């Protein structure tokens, strides 16, 4: 009765982890989640499949080309490609049941049929927070968002990172003051500064037909540097007579003031006039976050303020502000760069190895440990003791206790620290104390 | 510039929750996860999309009809319909990197295009554990699985539930002793006993052409009742001379002995010879779990022992034992039956309401609270104070503190318990103590 064997493999562009990497990944995800919850964000879990007409209501653009269609029966269905569109649909749908400002976090998988290349994933986690107002939303919220980013990355173990902040109103107001009404193309080009360098930005702007006077003004503007307060001061000094510019500047100043109140240290946030964010979606404050020691990784957390979340699903005006962490990509990059390593991680604290005939006692001991909240596994298979120690070692389980006749008779157990190799003979009470 | 409004809605058969229900759902999911981890199960997270040739390697049956196909480019892809097939593929694929016995838990969504009816979901969470041996797996593992079920449902707040246990070898050995070689149909029919009643089982067996002597023997066998020890004793008394029967009986006896050692109380598990499990997949121990006060809900957690996990992906023999909780369905049923209610749940412990001009102070206070691990939200919008209290009320936030001039000057804050309505004027230190 031969069975045809299919080669076990997954699709290209999909991430799948071995157990110790998965533990590490989950640890990062849990840290993000608990930080989001600490600030009063509410959980959400929307279907991965949505009606195509809902998901693609906005239509057009790159998104539609990257969509995964789902087929079963006649309904036109697709996999979600971000967590923002489902949020917009959700808020419009449950509008009357939600309390505003509605603060939600969402950690979930999204799907994009991107070109297959290293470090690009077709299935990846996003970890988003958004604050949605009903009709209006105070600018102070734009200052709270960076404090959540700060708290999260700090707890993830990073010290040297910068949340770069800018304001789209400031940018388009400035361009308007130069006579440019539609600054979309300029913004898109300026946004590439980090990637392509200043010379190429100038070149691109020239190609777009802007004259050198204008380009010089743009270059002068984005080269305004200094401390956060200096930048604000220098922007004021420009004396630009444009309402939008001054509104953006006021917002930026208020965000800076409040970020400090929210406890974000000065070294962890910086006004940066070159941050524009490619998407036309943002209308005010914009953020990008960089790990200072690893600039090559690019922004690890981006977002901003938008005027209206759910234009395609409701007439209610729902302004919001939010950010997103591309978790799968971040994990991949941190691992590739050797910044995080999975070898130290185990959820299980202790492996109990029973000598022959002492499995009963081992099982009872395990229950005692678990009742004290200690994650415990009993090695239930027969075999050489060296193999069992090796098992603990391979799974990074930090402690092993051996249970046999001598141990039970004298209430003295061989208790080994697998990392240091140190072995003690101690009582069960002492073992529990050591493990807690 | 009118925008076409698309009605915000989700597909039928998909569950989506409002915030307080989502908090409750996550609480249940977290409890299941922490119990699984406590017993040394390792996390896994496989792609939701797999190659169809891999996912459907077994082929045939109901499964293939219910599959959701995914379309993007030329590859034949599908959404997973359970967590067992991806596990089989995973173990075969990473065989050399895994340590056996490999214990994994997996909590994730699966997809089945079932007929649309109340309480049936097309996207639903399964929460599985499995222990996979390399070549062999000790029967003691079959006793540990119920102890994980026990620990989990106990922590979920249930006291009166019964893990019903049987053994397929015992059943097919018994039928072989009666001259029936292929007992698949009998097992399937007997498995329906709970649903269709004894008379209909007899009728179905008659229709299948079994003679009345045989049917009487079957009915006699499945009516063996009593305490766990009595059932074992009565089965021994049958003196059946069939190797498979006696192997099954020995296993069942050993499982009963060890379940006790694992700390499962006698009232929470029961041998039940009518439990057969519909799937041909199981080869030894089988489990089903019932909430005694809500028999209508059916089994809330089922599983069993199988000879070989990954026949379709590897020649390695990988016996295993596992169970699955159908989390989405369980949540739906518990909510429908009024057994659980979401109204009490909030992650946020306290809402800080600043009086006008005291937002700065409120923000600083929030940081203090969060540093003490207290989940805190500041109400940042302007508006009437009654509206802000109402916000806390609607979100079930249990405590509110008001921050204004008087409060700051005297370090005495209005601190309200939103449930009891009790309001105290106390110092910040006292507030923190009350919240912790």
> Numbering strands along the chain, what is their spatial order in the largest sheet of chain A?
1-5-6-11-10-9-7-8
CATH class of the domain at 350-435 in chain A: Alpha Beta
| Helix amount of chain A | 25-40%
Largest interface (C-beta under 8 Å) = A-B, 100 and 100 residues
Number of helix segments of chain A? 16
Poorly predicted sequence stretches spanning 5 or more consecutive residues of chain A: none
Secondary-structure content class of chain A: alpha+beta
The end-to-end distance of chain A, rounded to whole angstroms, is 52 Å
Number of strands of chain A: 16
Q: Which range does the strand content of chain A fall in? A: 15-25%
Name the CATH superfamily classification of the domain at 350-435 in chain A: Anticodon-binding domain
What oligomeric state is this? homodimer
Mean pLDDT of chain A: 93
Q: What integer value in Å does the Rg of chain A equal?
A: 27 Å
**What is the CATH architecture descriptor of the domain at 350-435 in chain A?**
3-Layer(aba) Sandwich
Globally, the shape of chain A reads elongated
Report the major sheet of chain A. Answer: 8 strands, mixed
Task: State the CATH topology of the domain at 350-435 in chain A.
Answer: Rossmann fold
């Amino acid at each position: 009765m031969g069975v045809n064997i299919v080669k076990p493999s997954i699709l290209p562009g999909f991430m799948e982890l071995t157990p110790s990497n998965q533990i590490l990944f989950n640890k990062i995800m849990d840290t993000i989640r608990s930080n989001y919850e600490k600030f009063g964000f509410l959980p959400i879990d929307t279907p991965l499949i949505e009606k195509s007409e809902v998901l693609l209501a906005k239509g057009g653009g790159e998104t539609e080309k990257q969509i995964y269609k789902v087929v079963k029966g006649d309904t036109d269905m697709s996999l979600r490609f971000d967590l923002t569109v489902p949020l917009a649909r959700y808020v419009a749908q449950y509008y009357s049941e939600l309390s505003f400002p509605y603060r939600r976090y969402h950690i979930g998988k999204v799907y994009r049929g991107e070109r297959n290349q290293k470090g690009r994933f077709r299935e990846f986690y996003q970890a988003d927070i958004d604050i949605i107002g009903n009709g209006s939303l105070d600018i102070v919220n734009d200052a709270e968002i960076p404090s959540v980013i700060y708290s999260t990355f700090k707890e993830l173990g990073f010290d040297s990172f910068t949340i770069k902040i800018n304001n789209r109103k400031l940018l388009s107001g400035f361009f308007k003051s130069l006579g440019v009404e539609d600054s979309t193309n300029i913004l898109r080009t300026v946004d590439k500064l980090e990637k392509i360098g200043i010379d190429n930005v100038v070149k691109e702007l020239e190609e777009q037909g802007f004259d050198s006077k204008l380009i010089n003004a743009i270059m002068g503007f984005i080269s305004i540097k200094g401390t956060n307060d200096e930048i604000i001061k220098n922007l004021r000094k420009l004396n630009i007579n444009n309402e939008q510019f001054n509104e953006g500047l006021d917002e930026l100043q208020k965000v800076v003031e409040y970020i400090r109140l929210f406890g974000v240290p000065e070294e962890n946030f910086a006004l940066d006039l070159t941050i524009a964010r490619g998407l036309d979606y943002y209308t005010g404050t914009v953020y990008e976050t960089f790990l200072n020691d690893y600039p090559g990784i690019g922004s690890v957390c981006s977002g901003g303020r938008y005027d209206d979340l759910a234009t395609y699903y409701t007439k209610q005006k729902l302004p919001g502000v939010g950010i997103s962490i591309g978790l799968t990509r971040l994990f991949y990059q941190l691992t590739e760069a050797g910044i995080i390593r999975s070898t130290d991680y185990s959820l299980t604290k202790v492996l109990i190895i029973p000598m022959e005939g002492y499995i009963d006692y081992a099982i009872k001991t395990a229950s005692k440990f678990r009742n004290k909240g200690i994650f415990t596994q009993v090695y239930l298979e027969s075999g050489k003791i060296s193999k069992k120690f090796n098992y603990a070692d391979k799974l990074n389980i930090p402690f092993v206790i051996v249970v046999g006749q001598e141990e039970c008779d004298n209430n003295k157990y061989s208790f080994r620290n697998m990392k240091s190799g140190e072995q003690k003979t101690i009582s069960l009470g002492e073992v529990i104390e050591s493990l807690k």
